[in-house]
Design a protein that fits this description.
- Helices cover about 55% and strands about 0% of the residues.
- The protein has 7 helices and no strands.
- The protein has helices at about 1-5, 15-25, 30-35, 40-55, 70-80, 85-95, 105-115.
- Helix 5 (about 70-80) packs across helix 7 and helix 6 (about 85-95) packs across helix 7.
- It starts with a helix and ends in a 16-residue tail after the last helix.
Length: about 130
């Protein structure tokens, strides 16, 4: 009855690292006498570790990455300081500064911030002046 109550030993990651480090000093022929694990178990742990390290699917969110907050602040600052500029002009200035961003993204950022598009020019036309 006692055997059924005692489960298999579950090694923590720190224990696995310790056993892997010790295994370098003991010849493989003597592993069965020294450790409670086999060489195949140690290699399986290593394969699982490598598989977890190179699995990027859980780190990445689906869709296009969001615009950096610094770029958003720059867009809003350009729009406030230059009220006659539209989203395309702001996008062109950002491209000059080395920030490749789509005009539609600039428009979405301005729209989300509640900034209206650049006003229509209501001054005199070329012929009138």
């Amino acid at each position: 009855m006692l055997r059924r109550q005692i489960a298999c030993v579950r090694y923590e990651p720190a224990d696995r690292i310790w056993l892997a480090a010790l295994s370098r000093f003991v010849p493989r022929e003597r592993w069965r006498q020294t450790f409670t694990i086999t060489p195949t178990t140690l290699l399986a742990w290593h394969r699982q570790l490598i598989a977890r390290k190179w699995m990027f699917t859980r780190h990445r969110r689906p869709g296009r990455p969001s615009t950096a907050p610094a770029v958003k602040q720059l867009i809003l600052r350009l729009a406030q300081e230059n009220s006659s500029w539209g989203h395309r002009r702001i996008q062109g200035e950002l491209a000059r500064l080395g920030y490749p961003i789509a005009p539609s993204t600039v428009w979405e950022i301005l729209h989300a911030a509640g900034i209206d598009p650049a006003p229509q020019r209501s001054g005199p036309t070329w012929r009138q002046s």
